[in-house]
Design a protein that fits this description.
2 copies of one chain form a homodimer. Chain A has about 110 residues and is an alpha+beta fold. Helices cover about 55% and strands about 15% of the residues of chain A. The first copy, chain A, is built from 4 helices and 3 strands. The structure holds a DNA duplex (30 and 30 nucleotides).
DNA sequence: CTTGACACCTAGAACAGCTAGGCATATATG
DNA sequence: CATATATGCCTAGCTGTTCTAGGTGTCAAG
């Protein structure tokens, strides 16, 4: 429980999903792959975290879903940002900046 | 639940506490004030988050407690880092750096 | 024909952080 | 004197996120 990779997302998952979806319509499975790839394998979004998060974001009106054909030729659920979702992303990015600044302040404090 | 200040700590609380305690023995109540002050009021550690966290850290052997007289003249529980706690702090700081780097990678991705 | 990648999903557990209480003492204020 | 405020400790119980661990089904490759 101490040094494993679990609980790495620490509440950033929603923001990361919103950001990746903001890059263009994309389906769930691909979102997790993209997050993993862009973060150079740091984040590994489990499906059990991913799908509930997507439904959460959709329920809050930040994402919209539509079934379409994926590049694989099979049906997949494509998500895109709503206007509210874009605002939410902005807010979360701003808040992340403030949060990491605040953390940095504390970590840099010397006695 | 969207824009309020709750759930700001996002798993960083343990690290922040360890860091503040690393600056020198300090009691619980003062830890939360110090975090708030250094972070320029960004973090407001509720007592219901603080004390369970302190007990958690103590149980894991990262902190040691001792009752002493506070500057106010009253008894308070002073915490200091153990050797394990120092290692843990290092690990968490390193991990935080990796995490925020990974987030930055994703947030900076343009289409 | 069976394995692995793709693509979706859920239930239940674990855990962190919050709200909202509680206790006790000291000091300041009306 | 009463009472509010600050100090200083604590817990129970709720909520929300993430994980583990399962499940469904299709398609391509070997």
């Amino acid at each position: 429980m101490a040094e494993d990779k679990s609980e790495m997302l620490k509440g950033t998952l929603d923001m990361l999903i919103l950001k990746v979806v903001a890059l263009g319509p994309i389906h769930g499975y691909a979102i997790s792959q993209r997050i993993q790839q862009i973060s150079k394998e740091f984040f590994q979004v489990q499906q059990g975290s991913l799908y509930p998060a997507l439904h959460r974001l959709e329920n809050r009106g930040w994402l919209e879903a539509e079934w379409r054909e994926a590049s694989s030729g099979r049906e997949a659920k494509f998500y895109k940002l709503t206007k509210k979702g874009r605002k939410q992303l902005e807010a979360e990015v701003l808040n992340w900046a403030r949060l990491s600044d605040a953390v940095a302040l504390i970590l840099r404090t010397a006695e």
